[in-house]
């Protein structure tokens, strides 16, 4: 270990404080810290920090720049004819049967807000079956493979790519192995890990979590694109003959895996990037909306527009900016390749001010009561701006979107609301199939 060379490198970027306790460390601790620091591109980190801070400080209301997504790029389950829906589904199932469609799960988050320390996908919301989010999703993959085979006489494999973080990788792997991959072929469940990025203070100095350890955090679900490239996932898709990927977040209990209608819609629009949306529940619902800003597509957060704009309506009474983002996307493989090769480093980090435990100048660990540092992250939808063929598919919230984010006791997005939404959907399925409820008081359970 050449500590003098490392010291010079750190000094160049104002990070020499990271080895201030070097002489107090044992050999293993020195090796760990040395290897961690050698692996950081401090120039790139400084550039990313400056761009993120500039972007944050220059944030303005975007009202005068906003335009809705053009009508010809939109579609809707509610406004679509049965014939057209059937055509979309037929094409989607055809692609699934041919082995051209994969699904990709963003599973880097832990269930902290749910009051548990394990990955959110392992959570059981209290269904009568006791099934976890992971099991529900695995079974839906098996079912869509069966449906495509029944339609076309050929069973295509839908590989399941699962992006974890350093905290969720091992628990997730072990959970799948313990449960026999829920009936899926193990080789078709592909785990890969997103990167972490150092946490910094407001001046861009990296925070020491311990004398021999820097504080890090996952780089956001927008770290997907770097992780795909670094972990050889695009090469894996090439080997399998995958042409398109359906990307979603782990916490939506109603997610449709490799949704053939969505796939068929995006293909009909010749889209290289597509997004599912739901209508906003009310004008000022705190959810991002998909729209155009200066002619490019992006998700605009509710805090970036005024109340007047949020409440603007079209002549038919619908909200003008009504495409609520639910983190459910379609990407062609070729679009992902282009992103990784040409645009990934153009993505700007978003900043989140957090309370980050640290070691002070006296070597004492501190647990701050107020935010003292910054975690930087990218968002998966930040790439919409690079799409040349974009499409938006509106679905019914009650059929496709019920996120699990908070512990029971919170006003929404809890185990109780998620469980109720799924049971109510299943009840509707039964009624549509001609079932009659034995108990007229039957509700969502």
Helix content: 25-40%
Number of helices: 13
Largest sheet: 8 strands, mixed
Structural class: alpha/beta
Please give the oligomerization state of what you see.
single chain
Round the Cα radius of gyration to an integer and report it: 23 Å
Our measurement of the CA-to-CA distance between the termini, rounded to an integer number of angstroms, reads 62 Å
Describe the structure.
- By secondary structure, this protein is an alpha/beta fold.
- It is 33% helix and 19% strand.
- It has helices spanning 3-12, 27-38, 42-57, 82-97, 133-152, 169-178, 224-230, 233-240, 260-268, 307-310, 333-343, 397-400, 415-432, and strands at residues 66-67, 74-76, 101-106, 160-164, 189-193, 196-198, 208-210, 213-214, 216-218, 244-249, 273-279, 289-293, 296-300, 323-332, 350-354, 358-359, 365-366, 373-377, 390-394.
- It has an 8-stranded mixed β-sheet with strand order 2-19-11-14-10-3-4-5, with helices on both faces. It has a 3-stranded antiparallel β-sheet with strand order 1-12-13, with no helix packed on it. The protein has a two-stranded antiparallel sheet with strand order 6-9.
